[in-house]
Amino acid sequence: MDTIAELWQEIETQITNLTELTAEDAIALRQNLSKLRQEIKGSVQTAQFASLIAGKEPLLLALLHAEDAKTRKNAVLVMGDMGMERFLEPIFTAYEKEPQMFIKSAYLSAIKAFDYRDYLSRLKDRQQQLLTTEITEDNKKHATEEMRILSELIVTMEGLKKHRFTGYRLPAEVILLTNRLQSEATEKQIQGAKTQLFNAGIKVQTNQIEKLLPIRTYQELLFAVPGMYSCELDAGRAAQTIVHSTLLSFLQSRHDGTFPFYFRVEVKSKQALDKKSIFVKKLTADIERLTHRQLINSPSNYEIEIRLIENKLQDQDTYNVLLKLYTIPDERFTYRQASISASIKPVNAALLVELAKSYMKEDAQVLDPFCGVGTMLIERQKVVMGNTAYGIDVLEEAITKAKLNTEAAGQIIHFVHKDFFDFTHEYLFDEIFTNMPFAMGHKTEEEIHELYIHFFDRAKTHLQKDGTIIMYTHNKELVKELAPAKGYTIIKQFEIMRRENTHLIILK
Protein backbone atom coordinates (compact mmCIF):
# COMPACT_ATOMS: atom_id res chain seq x y z
CA MET A 1 0.00 0.00 0.00
CA ASP A 2 2.89 2.36 0.73
CA THR A 3 4.22 1.92 -2.82
CA ILE A 4 0.78 2.54 -4.32
CA ALA A 5 0.31 5.66 -2.16
CA GLU A 6 3.76 6.99 -3.09
CA LEU A 7 3.16 6.41 -6.79
CA TRP A 8 -0.24 8.09 -6.66
CA GLN A 9 1.16 11.07 -4.79
CA GLU A 10 3.77 11.56 -7.50
CA ILE A 11 1.23 11.02 -10.30
CA GLU A 12 -1.20 13.44 -8.65
CA THR A 13 1.47 16.14 -8.59
CA GLN A 14 2.28 15.49 -12.25
CA ILE A 15 -1.40 15.64 -13.25
CA THR A 16 -1.88 18.92 -11.42
CA ASN A 17 0.91 20.41 -13.56
CA LEU A 18 -0.08 18.52 -16.72
CA THR A 19 0.11 21.52 -19.07
CA GLU A 20 3.57 22.46 -17.81
CA LEU A 21 5.25 19.05 -18.04
CA THR A 22 8.53 18.87 -19.89
CA ALA A 23 9.24 15.97 -22.26
CA GLU A 24 11.23 14.35 -19.46
CA ASP A 25 8.34 14.83 -17.00
CA ALA A 26 5.90 13.27 -19.51
CA ILE A 27 8.08 10.18 -19.75
CA ALA A 28 8.21 9.97 -15.95
CA LEU A 29 4.40 10.21 -15.74
CA ARG A 30 3.99 7.50 -18.33
CA GLN A 31 6.40 5.26 -16.43
CA ASN A 32 4.67 5.91 -13.11
CA LEU A 33 1.33 4.88 -14.60
CA SER A 34 2.92 1.69 -15.89
CA LYS A 35 4.38 0.96 -12.44
CA LEU A 36 0.99 1.67 -10.87
CA ARG A 37 -0.62 -0.97 -13.10
CA GLN A 38 1.85 -3.52 -11.81
CA GLU A 39 1.16 -2.58 -8.20
CA ILE A 40 -2.65 -2.77 -8.39
CA LYS A 41 -2.86 -6.21 -9.93
CA GLY A 42 -5.24 -8.23 -7.79
CA SER A 43 -8.63 -7.31 -6.31
CA VAL A 44 -7.26 -6.27 -2.91
CA GLN A 45 -4.72 -3.83 -4.33
CA THR A 46 -7.27 -2.46 -6.81
CA ALA A 47 -9.74 -1.83 -3.99
CA GLN A 48 -7.04 -0.11 -1.95
CA PHE A 49 -6.20 2.19 -4.84
CA ALA A 50 -9.89 2.96 -5.47
CA SER A 51 -10.22 3.95 -1.81
CA LEU A 52 -7.08 6.08 -2.06
CA ILE A 53 -8.34 8.14 -5.00
CA ALA A 54 -11.98 8.38 -3.88
CA GLY A 55 -13.26 11.82 -4.93
CA LYS A 56 -10.19 12.39 -7.13
CA GLU A 57 -11.27 10.29 -10.12
CA PRO A 58 -11.42 13.42 -12.36
CA LEU A 59 -7.64 13.67 -12.02
CA LEU A 60 -7.25 10.30 -13.73
CA LEU A 61 -9.83 11.21 -16.35
CA ALA A 62 -7.84 14.36 -17.14
CA LEU A 63 -5.09 12.08 -18.48
CA LEU A 64 -7.35 11.09 -21.37
CA HIS A 65 -6.54 14.58 -22.73
CA ALA A 66 -2.79 14.38 -22.13
CA GLU A 67 -0.67 15.52 -25.06
CA ASP A 68 1.51 12.41 -24.92
CA ALA A 69 -0.24 9.44 -26.60
CA LYS A 70 1.50 6.79 -24.49
CA THR A 71 0.39 8.59 -21.34
CA ARG A 72 -3.20 8.38 -22.58
CA LYS A 73 -2.67 4.70 -23.27
CA ASN A 74 -1.30 3.87 -19.82
CA ALA A 75 -3.97 5.96 -18.10
CA VAL A 76 -6.84 4.22 -19.89
CA LEU A 77 -5.38 0.82 -19.03
CA VAL A 78 -5.23 1.79 -15.35
CA MET A 79 -8.90 2.80 -15.50
CA GLY A 80 -9.72 -0.49 -17.19
CA ASP A 81 -7.93 -2.37 -14.42
CA MET A 82 -10.08 -0.54 -11.89
CA GLY A 83 -13.34 -1.23 -13.73
CA MET A 84 -15.21 1.69 -12.12
CA GLU A 85 -18.37 2.31 -14.16
CA ARG A 86 -17.97 6.10 -14.08
CA PHE A 87 -14.90 5.67 -16.30
CA LEU A 88 -16.70 3.92 -19.16
CA GLU A 89 -18.37 6.85 -20.91
CA PRO A 90 -15.26 9.11 -20.85
CA ILE A 91 -13.09 6.21 -22.06
CA PHE A 92 -15.45 5.42 -24.95
CA THR A 93 -15.71 9.08 -25.96
CA ALA A 94 -11.92 9.38 -25.89
CA TYR A 95 -11.63 6.17 -27.93
CA GLU A 96 -13.83 7.59 -30.68
CA LYS A 97 -11.85 10.83 -30.74
CA GLU A 98 -8.40 9.24 -30.43
CA PRO A 99 -6.28 10.35 -33.42
CA GLN A 100 -3.47 7.80 -32.92
CA MET A 101 -4.44 4.39 -34.29
CA PHE A 102 -1.61 2.63 -32.44
CA ILE A 103 -3.30 3.14 -29.05
CA LYS A 104 -6.97 2.65 -30.00
CA SER A 105 -6.74 -1.05 -29.12
CA ALA A 106 -5.73 -0.06 -25.57
CA TYR A 107 -9.07 1.73 -25.13
CA LEU A 108 -10.87 -1.41 -26.26
CA SER A 109 -8.84 -3.57 -23.88
CA ALA A 110 -9.96 -1.27 -21.05
CA ILE A 111 -13.60 -1.37 -22.20
CA LYS A 112 -13.62 -5.18 -21.74
CA ALA A 113 -13.81 -4.58 -17.98
CA PHE A 114 -17.15 -2.76 -18.18
CA ASP A 115 -20.75 -3.50 -19.06
CA TYR A 116 -20.54 -1.91 -22.50
CA ARG A 117 -23.79 -3.22 -24.04
CA ASP A 118 -25.14 0.32 -24.52
CA TYR A 119 -22.14 1.03 -26.77
CA LEU A 120 -22.47 -2.10 -28.90
CA SER A 121 -23.94 -0.34 -31.95
CA ARG A 122 -21.11 2.19 -31.91
CA LEU A 123 -18.56 -0.63 -31.72
CA LYS A 124 -20.19 -2.19 -34.78
CA ASP A 125 -20.08 1.16 -36.58
CA ARG A 126 -16.36 1.36 -35.91
CA GLN A 127 -15.95 -2.21 -37.15
CA GLN A 128 -17.61 -1.31 -40.45
CA GLN A 129 -15.52 1.83 -40.69
CA LEU A 130 -12.34 -0.21 -40.35
CA LEU A 131 -13.50 -2.58 -43.07
CA THR A 132 -13.57 0.33 -45.51
CA THR A 133 -10.32 1.88 -44.27
CA GLU A 134 -7.43 1.58 -46.69
CA ILE A 135 -4.91 -0.88 -45.29
CA THR A 136 -1.32 0.29 -45.67
CA GLU A 137 1.91 -1.12 -44.31
CA ASP A 138 1.92 1.73 -41.78
CA ASN A 139 -1.52 1.08 -40.30
CA LYS A 140 -1.95 -2.66 -41.00
CA LYS A 141 -0.63 -3.88 -37.64
CA HIS A 142 -2.69 -1.46 -35.55
CA ALA A 143 -5.87 -1.79 -37.63
CA THR A 144 -5.64 -5.57 -37.35
CA GLU A 145 -5.27 -5.45 -33.56
CA GLU A 146 -8.14 -3.00 -33.17
CA MET A 147 -10.33 -5.16 -35.38
CA ARG A 148 -9.42 -8.28 -33.40
CA ILE A 149 -10.50 -6.76 -30.08
CA LEU A 150 -13.63 -5.23 -31.61
CA SER A 151 -14.66 -8.70 -32.78
CA GLU A 152 -13.96 -10.12 -29.35
CA LEU A 153 -16.07 -7.46 -27.65
CA ILE A 154 -18.99 -7.94 -30.04
CA VAL A 155 -18.95 -11.75 -29.85
CA THR A 156 -18.64 -11.66 -26.06
CA MET A 157 -21.72 -9.48 -25.75
CA GLU A 158 -23.88 -11.03 -28.49
CA GLY A 159 -22.68 -14.60 -28.26
CA LEU A 160 -21.59 -16.72 -31.17
CA LYS A 161 -24.23 -17.15 -33.87
CA LYS A 162 -23.41 -20.76 -34.59
CA HIS A 163 -24.11 -22.45 -37.89
CA ARG A 164 -25.73 -25.87 -38.21
CA PHE A 165 -24.00 -28.47 -40.35
CA THR A 166 -26.25 -29.78 -43.14
CA GLY A 167 -23.76 -31.37 -45.53
CA TYR A 168 -24.08 -34.97 -44.39
CA ARG A 169 -24.83 -36.22 -47.90
CA LEU A 170 -22.41 -34.06 -49.89
CA PRO A 171 -19.23 -35.68 -51.24
CA ALA A 172 -16.17 -35.02 -49.10
CA GLU A 173 -12.65 -36.20 -48.52
CA VAL A 174 -12.56 -37.00 -44.82
CA ILE A 175 -9.45 -37.66 -42.77
CA LEU A 176 -9.93 -39.89 -39.73
CA LEU A 177 -7.01 -39.58 -37.35
CA THR A 178 -6.53 -42.90 -35.58
CA ASN A 179 -4.09 -44.90 -33.52
CA ARG A 180 -1.11 -45.14 -35.88
CA LEU A 181 -0.52 -48.84 -35.25
CA GLN A 182 -4.13 -50.00 -35.43
CA SER A 183 -5.76 -48.00 -38.23
CA GLU A 184 -7.19 -51.18 -39.72
CA ALA A 185 -9.47 -51.59 -36.70
CA THR A 186 -11.22 -48.38 -37.74
CA GLU A 187 -11.04 -49.01 -41.48
CA LYS A 188 -12.95 -52.31 -41.06
CA GLN A 189 -15.89 -50.41 -39.60
CA ILE A 190 -16.28 -48.11 -42.62
CA GLN A 191 -18.96 -49.30 -45.02
CA GLY A 192 -19.81 -48.04 -48.50
CA ALA A 193 -16.88 -45.66 -48.90
CA LYS A 194 -13.47 -45.65 -50.56
CA THR A 195 -10.68 -45.76 -47.98
CA GLN A 196 -6.91 -45.42 -47.99
CA LEU A 197 -4.62 -45.93 -45.01
CA PHE A 198 -1.81 -43.46 -44.35
CA ASN A 199 0.62 -42.95 -41.50
CA ALA A 200 -1.76 -40.99 -39.23
CA GLY A 201 -5.08 -42.60 -40.07
CA ILE A 202 -7.49 -43.12 -42.94
CA LYS A 203 -8.53 -41.06 -45.96
CA VAL A 204 -12.19 -41.63 -46.74
CA GLN A 205 -14.07 -40.57 -49.87
CA THR A 206 -17.72 -40.48 -48.90
CA ASN A 207 -21.06 -38.79 -49.41
CA GLN A 208 -22.48 -40.35 -46.25
CA ILE A 209 -20.62 -38.65 -43.42
CA GLU A 210 -23.31 -39.60 -40.91
CA LYS A 211 -22.16 -43.24 -41.21
CA LEU A 212 -18.70 -42.29 -39.92
CA LEU A 213 -19.84 -40.35 -36.87
CA PRO A 214 -20.79 -43.30 -34.61
CA ILE A 215 -17.44 -45.07 -35.11
CA ARG A 216 -15.79 -44.95 -31.70
CA THR A 217 -12.18 -45.66 -32.60
CA TYR A 218 -11.08 -42.54 -34.50
CA GLN A 219 -9.60 -39.63 -32.58
CA GLU A 220 -10.65 -36.78 -34.86
CA LEU A 221 -12.62 -36.25 -38.05
CA LEU A 222 -11.13 -33.63 -40.36
CA PHE A 223 -11.76 -32.48 -43.93
CA ALA A 224 -9.35 -32.02 -46.81
CA VAL A 225 -10.66 -29.01 -48.74
CA PRO A 226 -9.91 -28.79 -52.48
CA GLY A 227 -7.45 -26.02 -53.21
CA MET A 228 -5.89 -25.91 -49.75
CA TYR A 229 -4.33 -29.32 -49.30
CA SER A 230 -1.03 -27.60 -48.50
CA CYS A 231 0.41 -24.11 -48.15
CA GLU A 232 3.75 -22.37 -47.87
CA LEU A 233 5.44 -21.47 -44.61
CA ASP A 234 5.08 -17.76 -45.34
CA ALA A 235 1.96 -16.42 -43.56
CA GLY A 236 0.95 -14.08 -46.36
CA ARG A 237 1.19 -16.70 -49.10
CA ALA A 238 -0.48 -19.30 -46.84
CA ALA A 239 -3.44 -16.94 -46.37
CA GLN A 240 -3.70 -16.46 -50.14
CA THR A 241 -3.81 -20.23 -50.67
CA ILE A 242 -6.47 -20.76 -47.99
CA VAL A 243 -8.72 -17.90 -49.05
CA HIS A 244 -8.48 -18.62 -52.79
CA SER A 245 -9.30 -22.29 -52.26
CA THR A 246 -12.84 -23.68 -52.21
CA LEU A 247 -13.03 -23.13 -48.43
CA LEU A 248 -15.75 -20.46 -48.45
CA SER A 249 -18.01 -22.36 -50.83
CA PHE A 250 -17.30 -25.57 -48.89
CA LEU A 251 -18.53 -23.93 -45.68
CA GLN A 252 -21.52 -22.22 -47.24
CA SER A 253 -22.79 -25.32 -49.07
CA ARG A 254 -22.62 -27.45 -45.92
CA HIS A 255 -24.27 -25.14 -43.40
CA ASP A 256 -27.45 -23.21 -42.93
CA GLY A 257 -27.14 -19.51 -42.26
CA THR A 258 -24.83 -16.96 -43.80
CA PHE A 259 -21.34 -15.60 -43.23
CA PRO A 260 -19.37 -14.84 -41.13
CA PHE A 261 -17.90 -18.04 -39.72
CA TYR A 262 -15.69 -17.79 -36.64
CA PHE A 263 -12.38 -19.61 -36.86
CA ARG A 264 -9.09 -20.32 -35.18
CA VAL A 265 -5.77 -21.51 -36.56
CA GLU A 266 -3.82 -24.38 -35.01
CA VAL A 267 -0.24 -25.00 -36.13
CA LYS A 268 1.40 -28.37 -35.48
CA SER A 269 5.13 -27.88 -35.93
CA LYS A 270 8.45 -27.85 -34.12
CA GLN A 271 8.75 -24.11 -34.67
CA ALA A 272 9.64 -22.02 -31.59
CA LEU A 273 6.55 -20.81 -29.73
CA ASP A 274 7.25 -17.10 -30.25
CA LYS A 275 7.76 -17.51 -33.99
CA LYS A 276 4.68 -19.70 -34.24
CA SER A 277 2.62 -17.05 -32.44
CA ILE A 278 3.80 -14.33 -34.83
CA PHE A 279 2.98 -16.56 -37.81
CA VAL A 280 -0.54 -17.33 -36.52
CA LYS A 281 -1.30 -13.66 -35.81
CA LYS A 282 -0.26 -12.61 -39.29
CA LEU A 283 -2.04 -15.53 -40.94
CA THR A 284 -5.35 -14.98 -39.12
CA ALA A 285 -5.26 -11.24 -39.81
CA ASP A 286 -4.64 -11.82 -43.52
CA ILE A 287 -7.44 -14.42 -43.73
CA GLU A 288 -9.86 -11.94 -42.15
CA ARG A 289 -8.78 -9.16 -44.49
CA LEU A 290 -8.77 -11.25 -47.68
CA THR A 291 -12.22 -12.72 -46.96
CA HIS A 292 -13.57 -9.26 -46.05
CA ARG A 293 -14.33 -10.78 -42.64
CA GLN A 294 -16.45 -13.59 -43.98
CA LEU A 295 -14.10 -15.52 -41.74
CA ILE A 296 -13.48 -13.91 -38.33
CA ASN A 297 -10.70 -15.00 -36.02
CA SER A 298 -12.05 -15.84 -32.57
CA PRO A 299 -9.56 -17.98 -30.59
CA SER A 300 -11.93 -18.67 -27.69
CA ASN A 301 -15.28 -18.86 -29.54
CA TYR A 302 -15.00 -20.60 -32.88
CA GLU A 303 -16.87 -22.94 -35.21
CA ILE A 304 -14.04 -24.11 -37.42
CA GLU A 305 -10.36 -24.78 -37.00
CA ILE A 306 -7.87 -24.43 -39.83
CA ARG A 307 -5.11 -26.83 -38.91
CA LEU A 308 -1.63 -26.54 -40.40
CA ILE A 309 0.57 -29.59 -39.94
CA GLU A 310 4.29 -29.45 -40.64
CA ASN A 311 5.13 -31.61 -43.66
CA LYS A 312 7.71 -34.11 -42.46
CA LEU A 313 8.81 -35.14 -45.95
CA GLN A 314 12.29 -33.94 -46.84
CA ASP A 315 12.68 -31.09 -49.34
CA GLN A 316 9.11 -29.91 -48.75
CA ASP A 317 8.89 -26.64 -46.85
CA THR A 318 5.11 -26.68 -46.58
CA TYR A 319 2.23 -27.26 -44.20
CA ASN A 320 -0.50 -29.78 -44.85
CA VAL A 321 -3.84 -28.02 -44.29
CA LEU A 322 -6.98 -29.64 -42.86
CA LEU A 323 -10.29 -28.33 -41.59
CA LYS A 324 -12.05 -29.31 -38.38
CA LEU A 325 -15.75 -28.48 -38.10
CA TYR A 326 -17.08 -27.97 -34.60
CA THR A 327 -20.50 -27.57 -36.23
CA ILE A 328 -20.66 -31.37 -36.45
CA PRO A 329 -21.58 -32.67 -32.99
CA ASP A 330 -19.42 -35.48 -31.62
CA GLU A 331 -21.61 -37.31 -29.13
CA ARG A 332 -19.62 -40.53 -28.83
CA PHE A 333 -18.18 -39.91 -25.39
CA THR A 334 -20.55 -37.43 -23.80
CA TYR A 335 -21.00 -39.82 -20.88
CA ARG A 336 -17.50 -38.95 -19.68
CA GLN A 337 -18.53 -36.41 -17.04
CA ALA A 338 -15.51 -36.82 -14.75
CA SER A 339 -11.98 -38.22 -14.82
CA ILE A 340 -8.76 -38.49 -12.82
CA SER A 341 -5.19 -37.97 -14.00
CA ALA A 342 -4.62 -41.69 -14.70
CA SER A 343 -7.88 -42.16 -16.65
CA ILE A 344 -7.65 -43.79 -20.05
CA LYS A 345 -9.06 -41.73 -22.92
CA PRO A 346 -12.45 -43.05 -24.04
CA VAL A 347 -11.30 -43.36 -27.66
CA ASN A 348 -8.39 -45.54 -26.53
CA ALA A 349 -10.68 -47.73 -24.45
CA ALA A 350 -13.00 -48.02 -27.46
CA LEU A 351 -10.07 -49.19 -29.59
CA LEU A 352 -9.19 -51.88 -27.03
CA VAL A 353 -12.78 -53.14 -27.11
CA GLU A 354 -12.81 -53.20 -30.90
CA LEU A 355 -9.58 -55.21 -31.02
CA ALA A 356 -10.68 -57.65 -28.31
CA LYS A 357 -14.37 -58.02 -29.06
CA SER A 358 -14.01 -61.41 -30.77
CA TYR A 359 -12.57 -62.74 -27.49
CA MET A 360 -15.49 -61.39 -25.45
CA LYS A 361 -18.82 -63.13 -25.07
CA GLU A 362 -22.26 -61.72 -24.62
CA ASP A 363 -23.99 -62.13 -21.28
CA ALA A 364 -20.61 -62.50 -19.55
CA GLN A 365 -19.91 -61.71 -15.91
CA VAL A 366 -17.19 -59.04 -16.21
CA LEU A 367 -14.78 -57.65 -13.61
CA ASP A 368 -12.43 -54.65 -13.82
CA PRO A 369 -10.18 -54.78 -10.74
CA PHE A 370 -8.57 -51.36 -11.43
CA CYS A 371 -11.58 -49.60 -12.89
CA GLY A 372 -10.69 -45.95 -12.38
CA VAL A 373 -13.64 -43.86 -13.56
CA GLY A 374 -15.31 -46.80 -15.31
CA THR A 375 -14.34 -46.07 -18.93
CA MET A 376 -13.18 -49.59 -19.84
CA LEU A 377 -16.38 -51.25 -18.61
CA ILE A 378 -18.63 -48.61 -20.15
CA GLU A 379 -16.99 -48.97 -23.56
CA ARG A 380 -17.17 -52.76 -23.36
CA GLN A 381 -20.87 -52.69 -22.59
CA LYS A 382 -21.50 -50.46 -25.61
CA VAL A 383 -20.07 -53.07 -27.99
CA VAL A 384 -20.53 -56.47 -26.32
CA MET A 385 -23.29 -56.40 -23.75
CA GLY A 386 -22.38 -58.32 -20.62
CA ASN A 387 -24.64 -59.68 -17.93
CA THR A 388 -23.25 -58.22 -14.71
CA ALA A 389 -20.24 -55.92 -14.54
CA TYR A 390 -18.21 -55.03 -11.43
CA GLY A 391 -15.61 -52.28 -11.10
CA ILE A 392 -13.17 -52.21 -8.18
CA ASP A 393 -10.82 -49.40 -7.26
CA VAL A 394 -8.88 -48.45 -4.14
CA LEU A 395 -9.39 -44.73 -4.84
CA GLU A 396 -12.70 -43.41 -3.53
CA GLU A 397 -12.65 -40.41 -5.86
CA ALA A 398 -12.41 -42.74 -8.86
CA ILE A 399 -15.41 -44.79 -7.72
CA THR A 400 -17.50 -41.67 -7.17
CA LYS A 401 -16.68 -40.42 -10.65
CA ALA A 402 -17.23 -43.87 -12.19
CA LYS A 403 -20.79 -43.83 -10.86
CA LEU A 404 -21.41 -40.41 -12.45
CA ASN A 405 -20.07 -41.56 -15.81
CA THR A 406 -22.02 -44.80 -15.76
CA GLU A 407 -25.28 -43.03 -14.95
CA ALA A 408 -24.62 -40.60 -17.82
CA ALA A 409 -24.01 -43.61 -20.10
CA GLY A 410 -27.36 -45.10 -19.10
CA GLN A 411 -25.73 -48.30 -17.91
CA ILE A 412 -25.79 -50.41 -14.74
CA ILE A 413 -22.35 -51.31 -13.36
CA HIS A 414 -21.63 -52.21 -9.75
CA PHE A 415 -18.71 -50.25 -8.31
CA VAL A 416 -16.89 -51.16 -5.13
CA HIS A 417 -14.44 -48.94 -3.25
CA LYS A 418 -11.91 -51.57 -2.23
CA ASP A 419 -8.46 -52.97 -2.89
CA PHE A 420 -8.81 -55.72 -5.49
CA PHE A 421 -6.60 -57.99 -3.40
CA ASP A 422 -9.15 -57.82 -0.57
CA PHE A 423 -12.20 -58.16 -2.81
CA THR A 424 -14.37 -61.27 -2.54
CA HIS A 425 -17.47 -62.26 -4.47
CA GLU A 426 -20.02 -65.06 -4.24
CA TYR A 427 -19.69 -66.19 -7.88
CA LEU A 428 -16.90 -66.37 -10.46
CA PHE A 429 -16.43 -64.08 -13.44
CA ASP A 430 -16.10 -64.98 -17.11
CA GLU A 431 -13.77 -62.13 -17.90
CA ILE A 432 -11.38 -59.63 -16.40
CA PHE A 433 -11.09 -56.53 -18.58
CA THR A 434 -8.77 -53.88 -17.17
CA ASN A 435 -6.18 -51.15 -17.63
CA MET A 436 -3.28 -52.36 -15.47
CA PRO A 437 -1.48 -49.96 -13.11
CA PHE A 438 2.03 -48.94 -14.16
CA ALA A 439 5.05 -47.19 -12.68
CA MET A 440 4.28 -43.49 -12.29
CA GLY A 441 4.12 -41.04 -9.40
CA HIS A 442 4.32 -43.00 -6.16
CA LYS A 443 4.45 -46.47 -7.80
CA THR A 444 7.91 -47.91 -8.57
CA GLU A 445 8.90 -50.62 -11.03
CA GLU A 446 9.52 -52.99 -8.12
CA GLU A 447 6.02 -52.37 -6.76
CA ILE A 448 4.51 -52.99 -10.18
CA HIS A 449 6.41 -56.29 -10.44
CA GLU A 450 4.94 -57.41 -7.11
CA LEU A 451 1.49 -56.23 -8.14
CA TYR A 452 1.58 -58.39 -11.29
CA ILE A 453 2.64 -61.44 -9.28
CA HIS A 454 -0.26 -61.00 -6.87
CA PHE A 455 -2.66 -60.08 -9.68
CA PHE A 456 -2.19 -63.36 -11.53
CA ASP A 457 -2.60 -65.29 -8.31
CA ARG A 458 -5.68 -63.37 -7.25
CA ALA A 459 -7.28 -63.45 -10.68
CA LYS A 460 -7.49 -67.25 -10.50
CA THR A 461 -9.76 -67.00 -7.48
CA HIS A 462 -12.20 -64.81 -9.43
CA LEU A 463 -12.22 -66.40 -12.90
CA GLN A 464 -14.08 -69.36 -14.28
CA LYS A 465 -11.78 -72.18 -15.49
CA ASP A 466 -12.24 -71.07 -19.10
CA GLY A 467 -12.15 -67.38 -18.08
CA THR A 468 -10.39 -64.68 -20.10
CA ILE A 469 -8.14 -61.82 -19.06
CA ILE A 470 -8.08 -58.85 -21.44
CA MET A 471 -5.51 -56.38 -20.16
CA TYR A 472 -4.07 -53.10 -21.37
CA THR A 473 -0.52 -52.98 -20.07
CA HIS A 474 2.65 -50.90 -20.05
CA ASN A 475 4.58 -53.99 -18.95
CA LYS A 476 4.41 -56.59 -21.71
CA GLU A 477 7.64 -58.25 -20.58
CA LEU A 478 6.25 -58.79 -17.08
CA VAL A 479 3.18 -60.45 -18.56
CA LYS A 480 5.32 -62.71 -20.78
CA GLU A 481 7.48 -63.60 -17.78
CA LEU A 482 4.83 -64.14 -15.11
CA ALA A 483 1.64 -65.26 -16.87
CA PRO A 484 2.88 -68.68 -18.13
CA ALA A 485 4.44 -69.43 -14.73
CA LYS A 486 1.04 -68.80 -13.14
CA GLY A 487 -0.79 -71.09 -15.54
CA TYR A 488 -2.03 -68.57 -18.14
CA THR A 489 -1.62 -68.77 -21.91
CA ILE A 490 -1.16 -65.64 -24.03
CA ILE A 491 -3.45 -66.15 -27.01
CA LYS A 492 -3.23 -62.71 -28.66
CA GLN A 493 -1.40 -59.42 -28.29
CA PHE A 494 -1.65 -56.08 -30.04
CA GLU A 495 0.84 -53.23 -29.90
CA ILE A 496 -1.05 -50.03 -29.12
CA MET A 497 1.48 -47.21 -28.66
CA ARG A 498 5.15 -47.69 -29.41
CA ARG A 499 6.48 -44.70 -27.52
CA GLU A 500 4.58 -45.60 -24.34
CA ASN A 501 5.29 -49.31 -24.89
CA THR A 502 1.65 -50.24 -24.37
CA HIS A 503 -0.01 -53.48 -25.48
CA LEU A 504 -3.37 -55.17 -25.36
CA ILE A 505 -2.84 -58.76 -24.25
CA ILE A 506 -5.46 -61.50 -24.13
CA LEU A 507 -4.89 -64.50 -21.87
CA LYS A 508 -6.71 -67.69 -20.99
What does this structure look like?
With 508 residues, the chain is an alpha/beta fold. The protein has helices at residues 2-16, 23-39, 43-52, 57-62, 69-82, 88-97, 104-111, 120-131, 140-158, 183-187, 235-243, 247-253, 273-290, 346-356, 375-383, 396-409, 445-460, 476-485, and strands at 172-177, 194-198, 201-206, 220-224, 230-232, 261-268, 295-297, 304-310, 318-325, 365-368, 388-393, 414-417, 429-435, 463-473, 490-497, 502-507. The strands form three sheets. The chain has a seven-stranded mixed β-sheet, with helices on both faces. Strands 5-9-8-6-7 form a five-stranded mixed β-sheet, covered by helices on one side. A hairpin with a 4-residue loop joins strand 15 and strand 16 (502-507). The chain is elongated, with a radius of gyration of 30 Å.
Structure at a glance:
This protein has helices spanning 2-16, 23-39, 43-52, 57-62, 69-82, 88-97, 104-111, 120-131, 140-158, 183-187, 235-243, 247-253, 273-290, 346-356, 375-383, 396-409, 445-460, 476-485; strands spanning 172-177, 194-198, 201-206, 220-224, 230-232, 261-268, 295-297, 304-310, 318-325, 365-368, 388-393, 414-417, 429-435, 463-473, 490-497, 502-507. It has 508 residues and is α/β, with parallel strands linked by helices.
